Amino acid sequence: MHLPPQDDLFTAPPAVESQGLLKNINPEQLAAVTAPAEPMLILAGAGSGKTRVLTTRIAWLMQTGQVSPGGLMAVTFTNKAAKEMQTRLGAMLPVNVRGMWIGTFHGLCNRFLRAHWKLAGLPQGFQILDSSDSVSAIKRVIKAMKLDEERYVAKQVSWFIASAKEEAQRPGDIVPHDEQTRTMVAIYQAYEDQCKREGVVDFAELMLRCYELLRDNKPVREHYQQRFQHLLVDEFQDTNKLQYAWLKMFAPPGRQQAVFAVGDDDQSIYAFRGARVGNMVDFEREYRVSRVIKLEQNYRSFGNILDSANELIGHNSKRLGKNLRTDAGPGEPVRVYEAASDFAEAQWLIEEAQALHRQGLARKEIAVLYRSNAQSRVIESALFNAGIPYRVYGGLRFFERAEVKHALSYLRLLENPNDDTSFLRVVNFPTRGIGARTIELLQDAARASGRSLYQSVGAVAGKGGNNLMAFTGLVDSTRNLTQGLTLREIIEQVLETSGLAEFYRNDKDGAERLENLGELINAAEAFVTQEGFGKDAVALPVDELSPGAIAEGFPAAVAPANFTPDAETGEIMSPLAAFLTHASLEAGDNQAQAGQDAVQLMTVHSAKGLEFDAVFITGLEEGLFPHENSLTDHDGVEEERRLMYVAITRARQRLYLCFSQTRMLHGQTRYNVKSRFFDELPEGALKWLTPRNQGFGSGFAKEYQDAWSRGSGLKSMVGAGRVEKPAYVAAPVPRSMKAAAAEKVAAEFGGLRVGKGVFHTKFGEGMLMTLEGTGQDARAQVNFGRHGMKWLALSVAKLTPID
DNA sequence: GACCAGTGTTCATGT
DNA sequence: AACACTGGTC
C-alpha cells in the first residue's frame, strides 16, 4: 500500500499575503469570491473549498474597500466553523476578527440581545438554558399544571415548543385542533411565563426573540439593514424557517444587499430539527439570484471515494444537481468488511487503524464514524484495551457533566438568584436537609405569589424553611465574598463555600469529578485570558453603543443606567456572566486528551465539515444506517442517504465501510442485514475484504458450504475471485470457523442447519442463528420470535429441525 | 430526609 | 449495558 505524500496534493497553501488572496484559486472559486455585490447562491460540493471561498471573499471585500469589518455579517451553524472562519481570516488580513459579526446563528442572536436586552424585553443578565435545562424546566411546568406526565412527556413537549418557535409561532399563533395540542400550547404558554419570571431563554428563544425585535422595531431593523451591506451564510441548506426569516430581517429581498449564501443540498442532514433545504430554492427565487455558481471541483478525495459518493447520492430524487470531480487519480479502492459481531468489527478496525499508523499516518488523521453515539462504546473499549489513544466527540460534553452543571448552577445563582432551574439543581446538593416535601411547599408559595423560588423562601416557615434560609444565605454570602474577585477566584470560592469540592473530596468516586471541576477553573481562566471573553458571549465593540447609533433611532435605553461599558473594550458584562453564557452556548468538547495524536471517534453528524486521511464508516446495517426510525417515509431515507454521502466525502485517501452480522443493542443481540447503501455504490470502486454475503443462511454462507462440501473449500473461492487474496482471508476467519463448527455440530445433531427452522418443546418454532462447539459444549443460538433470542445447550435442549 | 436496592427506560442526529 | 426513577427502611 502506498499513501501519497500528504499536504502537497490536497491542501493548497493558504494565501498569507494579502496580495496573494486570489492565487491558487480555480475559476469557479474565483467567480464566487469576486462575485458582484448582489444576492448570490453558491452550490458548494463537499471538499470544494467552501470555507476558503467564504473567507477569501470576506478578505477580498475588505481589501478592495467594498466593506469595512463592521459592515458585514457572516453566520455559520457550529462554533467550530465560526472559529475556523475567524482564524483563517485573521491569517489573511490584519483585522480584529473578534469584533466582527462572525459567529453562529445563536451566538450572533445572543450578541444582539445583549446589546438590546431592554428592547427585547429581557433582563440584562439573562441566562441561556441548554436543552436539558429546558426539558427539566418544562417538566416542572407540567407538574405544576398537574397534568398526566405519561401523556405529556417533557422531552416531547420540549420538541413541540422548539418546533413552534422555529416556525416563529408564539402560543397565541397556534390553532390547536385537538385536546392534546391545546394542552401542549397551554404548557408552552406556562413555560414562557416561567422563563420570563426566571430571566432565562432557551436556544430557540434566542433566535425568535432576535427575529421579533427586528420585525417589530423599525429603527433597529433599519439601522442593521444599513449597517450590514454584506451578509454571508454558511451551510444554507441547514437553515430552518425562522433562520431564513431572520436573515430577511437583516437583508430583505427588495433592498438587494449582498447576501452570499453557500450551501449544498446533498449535505442537508438536519431536516429532523426543522432545516428546510427548500430555503435554497426560495432564496434563489425571492432574491432574484441571476446566476448560481457551482463548486464541483473536489480537492479532498481520490476518484474511487468520489465515484462512490456521486453514485450513492444519485439515488436521491430531489436534488439541485451537482457532480463532484477530481484531478487526483482513482486512488485506493474503497474497502468493505463484514464482521461477525460488533466486537469483531471493532477489533478489525483498530487492527487496520494500527496498520495505517505504522505506515506513517497520524492517528488524528484516522476517523471512525458511526450513526449514533451508542455505537461508540464497543469501539472505545477495543481501542482502550489495545492501548491506542483515541478521542470521542459528542456524547456527554464538558459543560454537560453533572458536577460541572452543579458548579455552574451555583455561579448562575450568584448572577441571577431567580433562576429556578439552577436553584432546584443545587438547593439540596450537597444534601443539606431540604427534601421533596419542603421544595413542594416552596414551589406552591412561589406559584401563589408569582415570584421565584429564591424570593419565596421567606414565605415557607418551619424546619425545612430554616434550611432553605440557610441555603439562600449561603448564596448571598458567597455573592458578597466574591465581589471584586477574578473569575478564577470566584469559581474557587464557590466550589468551597457550596460544599461541592468537599463533597467530591469525600466521595470515593469523586476524584475524576474533582478533576473536572479543576478543569472548569482552567476553562474559565482560558476564557478570560486567551479569548478575552469576547466572541459570541459579549464583547460589544464600542461602536455598538456609539452616540451615533443611538441618535439614529436607538432609544437611550440601549445603554442601561446601571452600567458603564469598559472604556477600552466596550465589554458590558461581568466576566462571570460572560463565562456562563459561553458555557451555555458552547457545550465544549470533552477536553480529555486534547492535543494528543489520537484516533477520532464521532457521529456522522458531527463529522460534517471535517476531513481525514482515512475514514471508517461503521455499522452499515439496515435499521442502524439507514436508521430504522427513518425508514417509514421516503424523505427520511433520502436524508439518511445524504448522511452517508457526508460520511463518504470526509475521506481523503482511504475509505473503509464495515458492518456486522450481530450487534448488542439495549443489552440484547440484534441480527442485522447489510445496509442498502452497498447496493448503491459502484462495484468497481469497492474491494470486499470479506466475501460477499446476502444475509443469514444464504449467499456466501451457502456458497461457502457448497464449496466446502465439494471438498475444495476456500481455495476454490479465492480462485474464483470471490476472495481476493489469502492475506485478507485471515480476516473472515471467525466466520469460516463458525461455518466449519456448524458443519460439525450439524453432523452431530443431524439435520440442524443455520438459517433453517427448529422446534423447541417450550419455546416453539424458531430460526437457528448460530451453531457452536461440540459434544457437551455444543450450543445453538435460536431466535424464537416473541420469546426472543436464546442460547441453548444442545446436550440438554431438544431441538428438532423443521423443513 | 437520606440511602439503598430493585425496577424500568432508553440508543438518532445539535445550537 | 448504563442510568434514572421508585419504593422501602432506618
UniProtKB/TrEMBL annotation:
Pfam families according to UniProt: PcrA_UvrD_tudor, UvrD-helicase, UvrD_C
Superkingdom per UniProt: Bacteria
Enzyme class: isomerase
Domain (UvrD-like helicase ATP-binding) ranges: 23-302
Assigned EC number: 5.6.2.4
Coiled coil: none
Reaction(s) catalysed by this chain's protein: ATP + H2O = ADP + phosphate + H(+); Couples ATP hydrolysis with the unwinding of duplex DNA by translocating in the 3'-5' direction
Leader sequence residues: none
KW Nucleotide-binding (keyword) present: yes
Binding site for ATP: 44-51
Family note: Belongs to the helicase family. UvrD subfamily.
Name by which UniProt lists this protein: DNA 3'-5' helicase
Organism: Roseateles koreensis
